[in-house]
Specification:
Distance between the termini: 38 Å
Oligomer: single chain
CATH superfamily: SH3 Domains
Organism: Stenomitos frigidus ULC18
Keywords: Signal
Pfam families: SH3_3
Protein name: Peptide-binding protein
CATH architecture: Roll
Number of strands: 7
Strand order of the largest sheet: 6-5-4-1-7
Shape: globular
Number of domains: 1
InterPro entries: SH3-like_bac-type (IPR003646)
Largest sheet: 5 strands, antiparallel
Order of helices and strands: HHEEEEEEE
Structural class: alpha+beta
Length: 106
Amino acid sequence: MLLKRNLSLFLAAIALLGVVSPALARGISTLRASNPNARINVRSQPTINSSSPSYGLPGDRVKVIQCVQDRDRRGSDLNWCKVQFVQSKAIGWIRSDFIIFSDGGK
């Protein structure tokens, strides 16, 4: 009985997590780079092979909308994240190693 109840609670928690937007869970994140004067490419698609119509700067604040696995490099543990800039409202894709996530994630 206890196991069945715990399983039901676990499944309910998973269902609830599916409803919460990743952006809401992450909050407002910050762009970073090893060079404080760097321009961080904002891509049109989640790949280095897509156009880079704009750029961000270290310290820019972004809302993470969605993240997907990096498929450019075999075995990569990075993600591409679709972000919206807090100030300009511009939207594009940035690789996760250029983002300091508000929740400490990757």
